[in-house]
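Worked example 2:
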Amino acid sequence: MKQFIFVIALATLACATDSPQNAEPSDLQAEPRVFENKIKEKIKALIEQLGDPIKLEDVKLQTENEQIKLDLAMTGTITGISKYEIPKLTLSMVGLKFTFKFVIPKLDVDITSYALTASLNMLPMHGAGTIVASVQELTLEGKGKLGSSGDGLVFLENIDVGLAIGDLKFAITGWLDDEERSKMISELVEKVVPDVLKEYADETRTILSGLIMKLTDGLKIKFP
C-alpha cells in the first residue's frame, strides 16, 4: 500500500535519475515532454506490478489529530486502478518539484472484513463487518517535492494533495453492531460524502497529505 500511495512521487524522481547527469538545466527544460513520458512509463510499470484487483490482506491504518482518531484493519480487494488517467503532470528539474492530476474513472472496493475503532470530534464510532463501494471519477490532484539522500536513495520530502469524487455507491454491515444503523449510515454516506469533500476541501487536503507523509516516513527507494 505504501507503494500505491508513493507511486507518482517516486516515478517523478525516477525520471530525474534517468536523465543525463551532465545535462545543463536549459537542456533538461528543452524537452519536458520526454521526462513526463518517462514518469508515465514508471507509473504504468508500478501499477502493473501492484495488479488489478489490488489485494488488501489485513491492512492497518492508524491516524490521530485534533479532529479525528482512526484505527482500522481490513481485508479485501480494490478493482479499477489499471484504468487510470493522468490529465496533468508537470515536472521541474530544478528542485525536483512536481504537480499532478491522477484520475480513476471507476473504482470498486470490496472489503470482505473490517474492524474499526474511531472518533470524529470526540464522537466515538466502531464497527466490524463488510464494505462494498463503487466510486466514480476518483481524483487526486496536488503538488510535491522530492528529496535525495545522496546515496542513490530517494524519498518524498513534502506533498500537498486533494481528493474529490463523483457519484458514490456505498454499503456497510456491522456499523455500531446494528444492521438498521448500518443501512442508515450507508445511505447517508452515499448522499453526503461527495459534497463534504467539496465543502471541506482544505481540511481533507491537510488530513490526506499528513496521512501520506506519515505512511511514507522513512521509506526510501533506490532507482537504477
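Residues 2 and 215 are 6 Å apart (CA to CA). The helical segments are 2-18, 25-30, 32-50, 179-199, 201-215.
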